[in-house]
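Minutes, project check-in
Item: structure for the 147-residue chain
Input as provided by the requester:
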Amino acid sequence: MPQPEWQWDQGPIGRLVKTGYITLRREIEQMLRPVGLTHTQWSALGVILHYPGITPSQLEQILMIERPSVTSLMNGLESRGLIVRRSSPEDGRSKQIFLTDAGKKLAEETQHFAVAVEERVKQGMTGEEFAALKALLVKLVNIFGQP
């Protein structure tokens, strides 16, 4: 007896949320390919652009990645000359992360990618549907406690 065809839209809510996220992420990754950034690198540059001096532990929470991944990410961005790590003036053992001029330029040149993808989503929905989607996603996260 043949297997029934898989229907992605009939799965549990977690799978639907993941499928939606991966779909959006793939669109951004396609835009990032020419500039040689991964989605995580791009996300980190955007966060650091808006929060200069952020600490690795803060970045870990915002990006929702583990500490070893943050360290590896920072090492890669630093080796490309996109960030610098400096000792905190309050606590010399703590590091703060800043964009270099090259990192700031790249972050600024690519930050519109998220807007472009969001605009594409908006084109496929009414304004009310888009607002409802955002509100429901926020509600979903809040059900389990904010990240």
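Outcome recorded: The beta strands are 83-87, 95-99.
No further action items on this chain.
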